[in-house]
Amino acid sequence: MLLRKKTYLALDDLAKELNISKPAVLKHINKLESQGIVERRFIVKGRGRPRCYIKLSDYADELFPKNYEEWAIDIIKYAEDKLGREKVLEFLKSKMQDNLNKYNLYILTERNIRAKVSRLVDIMNKEGYIPELREGKDYIEIIKYNCPIMKIAKSYPEICSFEADMFTKMLDKRVELVTSMVNNGSSCIIRIYKN
Length: 195
Description:
This protein is an alpha+beta fold. The chain has nine helices and seven strands.
């Protein structure tokens, strides 16, 4: 919390605030830095050695609670009130098209279906879906244990079928939404048939 309240905090000031030694603070900072949570900056002030300052990274900023989802829902509901549900669904479908274009850039170089799906799982992991890849004889499944857009999907469940359509276009394979968290499943399972 100390680093959240100040842009930069000197290493020795951080040690004083936490009431622990500088080497102990440095040990924690090294670990947090290796995880991309903090950044160091050395600043020269006057004579002598530069002082070490610590700040939260942009990545760490995303770890703090935000209310983006509520805002997004409110904006979408407002758009529905003004423009109608069909226009909102049209917008959500166009958002899936944007995702299709973005994902295609990552999987374009892959030749086989397993490599393409594996690349998709990597992307989805970065987006917070907590995906897992499972392979059967005739299919590959992406199991998503989190849905970053769950509140939107609960109000607009059509978005789940838009996503399945996106995977169909992207992979040029038959795709089926087997289970969905929107329909009280514990995960979303997207099945991609190999042939």
